[in-house]
């Protein structure tokens, strides 16, 4: 029974405080029961009452104490003394740090304009609306986030097809098509929903290059070659149209460009699909029939695997077109449009978070970073600049210079050709990084500020079932660390911004954001573990019948009217045209002869989220031999490689040396490598401009490489 060893009560001074785990972000905050004694966490359990996590925790959440009390925690504000990267700092006060930052920012603003200062949000994501408001109140359009290589391109693909993204109604679907997601590693709530669906007879199709816990449950596993998702989706559409399994009424009345789409799809027979993807034609046919024939059906996408290709947005457009083809858009059990309530998450309440964050219209500011190179991003993504372009603009100073950057959880290894971005950072006049730990990125900052963890702060969160929480600090912030929002609001005052909500404070801002919902800070504080929203919104189906689609045509677009403006520009085709990855056997056979393996990077491991939990003993022990690359035993045998041997992974860009992990989860001919290792940064193997031309997303999931066995530390 839980808690017997540390039963709370007045006799031992132990009390339970409610909180959430925000190590993973943004949709997977699990409820925490924190056992507190003398102001310190002595035990962590999952909160049974939390409707999303229902008492469970993953390996990362279970290691919360190791996360909070880690020796690498930043303790005080720091000012750089030695050269950037030397790690030499002196401790300063918060007042000194804020004075230095505000003076530098305002001086740069006066000389070069506010756009010369960039504001970046990494992990975690909870403070994003407040940081964006800070950037825009300052006058800078350059609010950037790690979503420039995470979820925005998937969102872009949905918006180009539907206008409004639709989330899978897993609870009510009869057929779930999981497209390159593995929620058992990334989203436990979705994993539980899949298990419950299987118990009630739900059909499950999984598209994934790997074998995973999710594919093990599948009725059909479509194990495609990385980067060929679009070809697979088009081949499925070929079957659905040829066999007249599509929703003719929906297609005739609510879609645009079907005839051209149909003509293009005719060239993608299942046999052609097998040739391009490696998936047997009979499996393509069976999956198409199952998805189109079992109603309702839903597609569960992932944030980034499909869009981490140089053809990523077009690939996902082809996938999402299947939803329109079968009439499974905005229906119960299909891909349902549940409008977001806060930080892109649905909560069944109305809010003003967009109005709060977007304090200035884009046209009143200078062009965003990346605006000239990625015009579709600017048209479709209303939230931010494209951060992948930041290092190029820092170096080129065109169309204007970027002189200063403040990052909240910035990790330079997130960028392709990460060392090149690090060099760009060093060209800045001034760089500030806010983090929980002394990361490698912090070592290059002029000022480093210590942030606290989620259990030491107050934050607003919501979940799709209509649950909301405003957490209260379970313990006081350790050392001199502060909440990210405290830092943002204090900096706004120091910068002299004439912003009434920054002057009013954090809680007043939350009340302003929540006003349309009727929720208040005062009421939320009465429910420290969270609460269900009173009078939750009743979201109707098929809203498009009344309101149309938020696309230029007002319909679901098989052929994008946004992209029609760019016809003739490679990668900008109005139809979801399939092109192989920029570096692939099909596109660059001469490169593939020397580099015959597909390099696929960044796929999640269950114990890690980027690099944040590398430093925790429990999570680290679950993969002690790291950094390591996953290769298929067939390839290993052919190359004379054994488990834990050192191997050299090389691309035309460079090479790293790691251990070999032999596993049948990986297809022959593919190498999977987790990212962010300081001693073996796989992102160094990608060129900085190896990007999707539509979204600017890096092609992390499909490049070409070669592998060879080496002696330890050898070249």
Keywords:
Dimethylsulfoxide Reductase, domain 2, six-stranded mixed beta barrel, Rossmann fold, 4 domains, 715 residues, seven-stranded mixed beta sheet, 26 helices, 17% strand, alpha/beta, N-terminal domain of TfIIb
Number of strands: 29
Main sheet record: 7 strands, mixed
**Rg from Cα:** 25 Å
- Mean pLDDT figure: 96
Please report the first level of CATH classification, the CATH class of the largest domain: Alpha Beta
Query: CATH fold name of the largest domain, please?
Result: Rossmann fold
Proportion of residues in helical segments: 25-40%
Q: Provide the number of structural domains.
A: 4
Q: How far apart are the first and last residues' alpha carbons, in Å?
A: 53 Å
By oligomeric state, this entry counts as: single chain
Characterization of the model:
This protein has 715 residues and is of the alpha/beta class. The protein has four domains: 4-68, ADC-like domains (N-terminal domain of TfIIb, Single Sheet), CATH 2.20.25.90; 78-152 and 342-532, 3-Layer(aba) Sandwich (Rossmann fold); 166-336, Dimethylsulfoxide Reductase, domain 2 (3-Layer(aba) Sandwich); 589-710, Barwin-like endoglucanases (Beta Barrel), CATH 2.40.40.20. Helix content is 30%, strand content 17%. It has 26 helices and 29 strands. Strands 5-4-19-18-17-6-7 form a seven-stranded mixed β-sheet, covered by helices on one side. A hairpin with a 2-residue loop joins strand 15 and strand 16 (345-346). Helix 4 packs parallel to helix 18, helix 8 packs parallel to helix 13 (312-325) and helix 16 crosses helix 17. The longest helix has 19 residues, at 94-112. The radius of gyration is 25 Å and the shape is globular. It starts with 14 loop residues before the first strand and ends in a 5-residue tail after the last strand. 56% of the residues are buried.
């Amino acid at each position: 029974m839980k808690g017997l060893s540390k039963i709370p009560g007045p006799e031992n001074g132990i009390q339970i405080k409610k909180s959430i785990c925000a190590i993973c972000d943004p949709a997977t905050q699990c409820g925490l029961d924190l056992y507190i004694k003398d102001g310190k966490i002595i035990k962590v359990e999952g909160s049974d009452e939390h409707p999303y996590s229902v008492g469970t925790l993953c390996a990362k959440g279970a290691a919360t104490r190791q996360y909070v009390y880690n020796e690498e925690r930043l303790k005080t504000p720091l000012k750089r003394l030695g050269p950037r990267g030397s790690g030499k700092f002196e401790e300063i006060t918060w007042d000194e740090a804020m004075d230095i930052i505000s003076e530098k920012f305002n001086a740069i603003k006066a000389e070069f304009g506010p756009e010369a200062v960039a504001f970046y949000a990494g992990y975690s994501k909870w403070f994003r609306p407040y940081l964006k408001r800070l950037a825009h109140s300052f006058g800078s359009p350059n609010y950037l986030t790690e979503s420039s290589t995470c979820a925005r391109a998937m969102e872009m693909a949905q918006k180009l097809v539907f206008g409004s993204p639709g989330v899978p109604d897993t609870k009510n679907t009869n057929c779930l098509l999981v497209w390159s997601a593995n929620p058992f590693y990334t989203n436990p709530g979705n994993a539980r929903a899949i298990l419950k669906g299987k118990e009630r007879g739900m059909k499950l199709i999984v598209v994934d290059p790997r074998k995973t816990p999710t594919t093990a449950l599948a009725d059909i596993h479509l194990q495609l070659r990385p980067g060929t998702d679009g070809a697979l989706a088009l081949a499925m559409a070929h079957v659905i149209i040829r066999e007249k399994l599509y929703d003719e009424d929906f297609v005739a009345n609510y879609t645009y460009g079907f005839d051209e789409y149909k003509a293009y799809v005719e060239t993608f027979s299942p046999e052609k699909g097998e040739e391009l993807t490696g998936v047997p034609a009979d499996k393509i046919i069976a999956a198409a029939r199952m998805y189109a024939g079992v109603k309702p059906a839903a597609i569960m996408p992932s944030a980034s695997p499909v869009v981490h290709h140089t053809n990523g947005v077009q690939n996902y457009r082809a996938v999402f077109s299947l939803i329109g083809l079968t009439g499974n858009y905005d229906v119960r059990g299909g891909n349902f449009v549940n409008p977001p309530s806060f930080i892109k998450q649905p909560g069944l309440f109305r809010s003003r978070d967009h109005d709060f964050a977007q304090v200035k219209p884009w046209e009143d500011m200078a062009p965003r970073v990346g605006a000239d190179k990625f015009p579709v991003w600017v048209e479709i993504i209303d939230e931010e600049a494209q951060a992948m372009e930041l290092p190029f603009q820092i170096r080129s100073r065109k169309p204007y210079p970027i002189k200063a950057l403040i990052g909240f959880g910035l990790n330079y290894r997130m960028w392709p050709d990460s060392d090149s971005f690090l060099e760009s950072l060093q060209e800045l006049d001034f760089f500030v990084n806010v983090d929980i730990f002394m990361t490698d990125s912090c070592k290059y900052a002029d000022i480093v500020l210590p942030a606290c963890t989620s259990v030491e702060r107050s934050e607003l969160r919501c979940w799709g079932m209509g649950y909301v929480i405003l957490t209260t600090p379970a313990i006081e912030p350790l050392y001199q660390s502060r909440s990210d929002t405290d830092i943002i609001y204090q900096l706004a005052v120091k910068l002299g911004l004439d912003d009434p909500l920054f002057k009013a404070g954090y809680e007043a801002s939350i009340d302003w954001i929540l006003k349309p919902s009727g929720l208040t800070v005062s009421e939320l504080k009465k429910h420290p573990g969270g609460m269900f929203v009173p009078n939750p919104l009743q979201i109707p189906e098929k809203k498009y019948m009344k309101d149309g689609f938020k696309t230029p045509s007002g319909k679901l677009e098989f052929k994008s009217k946004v992209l029609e403006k760019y016809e003739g520009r490679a990668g900008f085709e109005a139809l979801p045209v399939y092109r192989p990855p920029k570096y692939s056997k099909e596109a660059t056979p001469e490169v593939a002869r020397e580099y015959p393996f597909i390099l696929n990077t960044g796929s999640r491991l269950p114990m890690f989220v980027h690099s944040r939990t590398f430093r925790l003993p429990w999570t680290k022990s679950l993969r002690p031999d790291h950094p390591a690359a996953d290769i298929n035993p067939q390839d290993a045998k052919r190359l004379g490689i054994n488990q834990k041997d050192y191997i050299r992974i090389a691309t035309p860009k460079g090479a790293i040396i790691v251990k070999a992990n032999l596993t049948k989860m990986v297809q022959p001919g593919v190498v999977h490598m987790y990212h962010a290792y300081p001693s073996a940064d796989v992102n160094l193997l990608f060129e900085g401009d190896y990007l999707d031309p539509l979204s600017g997303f890096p092609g992390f999931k499909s490049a070409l490489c070669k592998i060879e066995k080496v002696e330890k530390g050898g070249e």
